[in-house]
Amino acid sequence: MRYATLGRSGLHVSRACLGTMNFGTDAQAPTSDTEARRIIGEFLDAGHNFIDTADTYRGGASEEIVGHAIAHRRAEVVLATKGAAPQGAGPNNRGLSRAHLTRALEASLRRLGTDYIDLYQCHVPDPDTPIDETMAAFDGFVRSGKVRYVGCSNFTAAGIVSAQWAAHRIGGTPFISLQANYSLITRAIEAEIVPTCQQNGLGILAYSPLGSGLLAGRYQRGAAPAAGSRLAQWAAMPSPMAHAFVTGLLAERHFDIADEVTTVAAELGTTTPTVALAWLRSRPEITSVVLGPRSADQLSANLAGLAFELPESVSTRLDAASQCTISPPVNGQHHTA
């Protein structure tokens, strides 16, 4: 079993992280309570120790399922969750303010049935709250013993630097990790975010390693996403950002990359997801890959993919096929060609 230290810390995590966004108790949840517990058990039995959830996943049901499943194995689990997402209608029930994060942390601890979180993370940036307030609140959580380490998700390079300096100014607790969207389809973080993490002591946790399903063969060139798929649900949302994400993901160039991965998989006698995961695991800048299996069978396939060794020539070939030209950020957003 391979472990790595997370960022500039002494915390050892498995190279595979179990993402639990699909776990729920309602009829619409992709993964039932029973199957979720089976997945968690098999993940831990295989020697992996890193589980990630969030207060917003399935309305908190994901945290409850995870908490029950690991209750008798709590000491062997590096448990990560996130706060920031709306937890009510009021203006102070969201974001990264001290007021909201304090309530969010207490609620997560109750749902998880534990008295501490190993890694507590900002789920998204909050432009309305000074980063000094957020980092001071996080430092208070660590000093209270309710949180061991802190991290962030979806932060820009500038946001990471601002947070680390804010922690430094108060002699507080800095971030040790960043969760970022990263795969053969989405490599924009390589331009600025990866070097910023390396310079500021953050390990990188790569989520959506199969390109939101594109590298798993769930979507076809020129065809609308199948009814019931995640992309179909996003496409039906009234949000312009959701529509832009779906359109961007289904770009012709991304299907070209997926086709190359499929070709490589056929040549190696394996599957497209295996090739995509093996490439990602081989990236030295990635500490752990966040998997999101819906079933125990998917978990087994994903773990096998992470263990697969790609020939160096194949990795070089995939690098070339998926490398994008990244322009300087405009209004905080990268544009790729």
TrEMBL record:
One cellular-component annotation, GO: cytosol
Molecular functions (GO terms): oxidoreductase activity
One Pfam family recorded for the sequence: Aldo_ket_red
InterPro entries: AKR, AKR_Detox_Biosynth, NAD(P)_OxRdtase_dom_sf, NADP_OxRdtase_dom
Positions of the NADP-dependent oxidoreductase domain: 17-321
Alphabetically ordered keywords of this record: Oxidoreductase
PANTHER family, per the entry: NAD(P)-LINKED OXIDOREDUCTASE SUPERFAMILY PROTEIN, NADH-SPECIFIC METHYLGLYOXAL REDUCTASE-RELATED
Protein name: Oxidoreductase
Native species: Micromonospora lupini str. Lupac 08
